């Protein structure tokens, strides 16, 4: 099991991670240059290397879960802050990327739960003015598949995003979602069936 995550304290995006995030689905499996973390690296060295190699792909993944670029960036930044604070307690540093994925999924769930509560009790008013972030995600949402994903139950959407856009194995998805491989198969199969139905209705 991953260690308890500390409270976020400081975010230090740098270098390549500062460029605007490309949220097109074709780039979701990019940024995989770093494999296992070398033995002997401290938290600063390891997390900096992980950040440079995987920040952008994790944000692209989070965008599909929370449907908002700025929120996705915050979710991923918080996940990196958490793993930095917990680095000494990691039982297996080579699984740091798996820990980050799980943290991103869990934080995305928290965001969606909070958003649902806010939207339920928020007073009805004028629609929000368009923003740069909304413009970027709007380009992604024009895809019929992405639009259909939004109509799926959360667990089915997570399973499909991690499998087909994150290109993860069933074991990796099970770890990220905190469920069994059998449950991953079930959510994936049901999600694909529901996705086909939604796409047929949209067409």
UniProtKB/TrEMBL annotation:
The keyword Endoplasmic reticulum does not apply. Gene3D superfamilies: 1.10.1740.10, Winged helix-like DNA-binding domain superfamily/Winged helix DNA-binding domain. This is RNA polymerase sigma factor. Residues 50-115 form the RNA polymerase sigma-70 region domain. Keywords: DNA-binding, Sigma factor, Transcription, Transcription regulation. Residues 144-195 form the RNA polymerase sigma factor 70 region 4 type domain. It comes from the Bacteria. Belongs to the sigma-70 factor family. ECF subfamily. GO terms for molecular function: DNA binding; sigma factor activity. The keyword tRNA processing does not apply. One of its GO terms (biological process) is DNA-templated transcription initiation. InterPro entries: RNA_pol_sigma-70-like, RNA_pol_sigma-70_dom, RNA_pol_sigma-E_actinobac, RNA_pol_sigma70_r2, RNA_pol_sigma70_r4_t2, RNA_pol_sigma_r2, RNA_pol_sigma_r3/r4-like, WH-like_DNA-bd_sf.
